[in-house]
């Protein structure tokens, strides 16, 4: 199994990334920030429907303070979902504010409920970390998925990404009726490929969700990353390949059982072709993001040196050895998609 650093450094948002966020509408003013939510009076453990401790704790604030906080959180939700139009969220209410005390970053999760039909949604309030923001933006630009998030000062607001947690999917969904092992194996190959190309690490089953999409003949699956803290931080190549995590062993075994090498290569090529199309469609945002990323430190120097050497060996390309930052390495990894495409034409 790849070895992950016990505690990743949190990097502040630099001037280059800040300029990018402002240019592309990710930076905004919000009425309440992460430190404001830490002033809760007490917290109680939150259990799921089966009575299992979720490791989240529900925060309890003073009555007047709670009312003000809830109003501000609804304003943030309106900014995140509908550009700040409060009329659209008049029938919504903040149902619960939870904090995750077992993680390094101590994020808050806000549950918003529709008072008319009891439907609900979540969003997250976190301390902003430059690595995570680069990860979110790369996901938005280069994956099949769009990501909604906002930054204000050193506070990060993230949408909730719906889906079945990967570990739960592996435990409960592999033997159900209509389960299509070949299709989830194919999706795992593609997820593995795009994680590696954009250098998103730590993609074990607790850090992604599986979305199930019934079709008129078959069931389709999509694997979506939900944790972006390990965007191009670690020093080892295998950390960026989900196939090597023991938590994903069952999915890797499905690939070995149901997909031959020729088909694996086909699916890898398909994903690279799709990423190439996304890169072309997002040309200027991607160029600007890479320029910001190349100029800022988001990993220790030793990690940069070791990763560029491993990737140079993997790709048989000395171009990686010129990299001076993690941003340089990510840029070169993306350029490999163009280079390999060109060599096959």
Task: Please provide a brief summary of the model.
By secondary structure, the protein is of the alpha+beta class. The chain is 43% helix and 18% strand.
Write the layout of secondary structure elements.
Blueprint: H1 15-23, H2 34-37, E1 42-47, E2 53-60, H3 63-82, E3 92-100, E4 108-114, E5 120-127, H4 130-142, E6 149-152, E7 155-159, E8 164-165, H5 166-172, H6 181-197, E9 208-214, E10 219-225, H7 249-258, H8 261-281, H9 283-295, H10 301-315, H11 326-343
Antiparallel strand pairs: 1-2, 2-3, 3-4, 4-5, 5-7, 6-7, 8-9, 9-10
Helix pairs in contact: 1-9, 4-9, 6-7, 6-8, 9-11, 10-11
Written account of the structure:
Helix content is 43%, strand content 18%. By secondary structure, it is an alpha+beta fold. The protein folds into two domains: 15-159, no CATH class; 164-343. A seven-stranded antiparallel beta sheet has the order 1-2-3-4-5-7-6. Strands 8-9-10 form a three-stranded antiparallel beta sheet. It is globular, with a radius of gyration of 21 Å.
């Amino acid at each position: 199994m790849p070895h992950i650093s016990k505690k990743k450094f949190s990097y502040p948002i630099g001037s280059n990334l800040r300029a990018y966020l402002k240019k592309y509408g990710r930076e905004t003013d919000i009425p309440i920030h992460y430190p404001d939510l830490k002033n809760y009076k007490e917290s109680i453990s939150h259990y799921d429907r089966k009575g299992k401790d979720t490791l989240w704790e529900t925060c309890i604030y003073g009555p007047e303070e709670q009312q003000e906080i809830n109003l501000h959180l609804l304003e943030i939700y309106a900014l995140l979902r509908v550009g700040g139009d409060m009329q659209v969220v008049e029938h919504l209410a903040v149902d619960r504010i939870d904090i995750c005390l077992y993680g390094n970053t101590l994020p808050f999760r806000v549950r918003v409920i529709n008072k008319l039909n009891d439907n609900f949604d979540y969003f997250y309030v976190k301390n902003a970390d430059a690595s995570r923001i680069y990860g979110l933006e790369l996901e938005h630009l280069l994956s099949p998925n769009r990501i909604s998030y906002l930054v204000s000062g050193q506070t990060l607001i993230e949408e909730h990404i719906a889906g079945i947690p990967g570990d739960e999917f592996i435990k409960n969904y592999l033997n159900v009726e209509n389960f299509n092992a070949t299709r989830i194996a194919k999706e795992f190959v593609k997820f593995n490929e795009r994680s590696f190309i954009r250098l998103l690490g730590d993609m074990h089953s607790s850090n992604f969700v599986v979305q199930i999409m019934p079709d008129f003949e078959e069931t389709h699956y999509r694997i979506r990353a939900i944790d972006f803290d390990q965007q191009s931080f670690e020093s080892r190549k295998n950390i960026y390949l989900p196939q090597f995590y023991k938590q994903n062993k069952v999915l890797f075994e499905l690939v070995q059982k149901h997909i031959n090498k020729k088909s694996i290569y086909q699916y890898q090529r398909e994903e690279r072709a799709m990423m190439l199309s996304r890169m072309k469609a997002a040309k200027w945002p991607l160029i600007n993001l890479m320029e910001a990323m190349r100029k800022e430190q988001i990993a220790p120097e030793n990690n940069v040196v070791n990763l560029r050497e491993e990737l140079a060996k993997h790709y048989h390309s000395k171009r990686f050895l010129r990299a001076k930052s993690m941003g340089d390495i990510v840029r070169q990894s993306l350029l490999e998609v163009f280079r390999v495409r060109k060599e096959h034409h």
